[in-house]
Specification:
It contains seven helices and four strands, in the order E-H-H-H-H-E-E-H-H-H-E. It has helices at 12-18, 25-34, 47-54, 58-86, 118-129, 133-141, 146-149; strands at residues 9-11, 93-95, 112-115, 155-158.
């Protein structure tokens, strides 16, 4: 909705995909640590294979985060600077699923949390990622529950409906 109103958006999920594309340093580190079996035939990261590994092993998940999070943050700063140079003083929308978990909330002026029930989160994850209910629930365990996240919110968008 903000994008439709002309707000430039920076999405950490998109950046996270970019920093692990073939030829990128993060992908090379991931391959070195996890092995080539986490690649698809075309050389791109097989995100489902990797998620099966890291969502069942906290140490491996932290290692993966160490490869990608610094690069995501660096790219984020580059994008903020590019936007600010073109439109000084503009409001920038930033989508960060793990905002609170990464302790990034302090760098933003206002936080909007999109809230939906845990059951609805699991349901939507299974549909979006074509995964089992159990895997969706495990993915959510890696995140701070939304009931806790809303304590940080300046605004809450309730999104349990269509």
């Amino acid at each position: 909705m903000l994008k439709e109103l002309g707000v430039p958006i920076i999405d950490f999920d998109i950046i996270a995909r970019q920093v692990v594309e073939p030829g990128q340093p993060a992908l090379k580190e991931i391959i070195h640590y996890f092995g080539k079996q986490i690649l698809q035939k075309d050389g791109y990261l097989d995100r489902k294979k990797l998620s099966n590994i890291v969502f069942n092993d906290l140490i491996k998940r932290r290692k993966l985060e160490g490869f990608i999070h610094p690069r995501i943050y660096t790219e984020f700063i580059k994008q903020v600077n590019r936007i600010a140079l073109k439109k000084p003083g503009v409001i920038i929308g930033v989508v960060i699923p793990l905002l609170i978990e990464l302790n990034f909330q302090h760098i933003f002026h206002k936080l909007i949390i999109v809230y939906l029930s845990k059951q609805e989160q699991v349901k939507r994850l299974t549909i979006r990622d074509k995964i089992s209910l159990e895997k969706a629930a495990n993915m959510l365990k890696a995140q701070l529950p939304l009931d806790k996240k809303i304590e940080y919110a300046d605004f809450i968008v309730y999104n349990d409906k269509s």
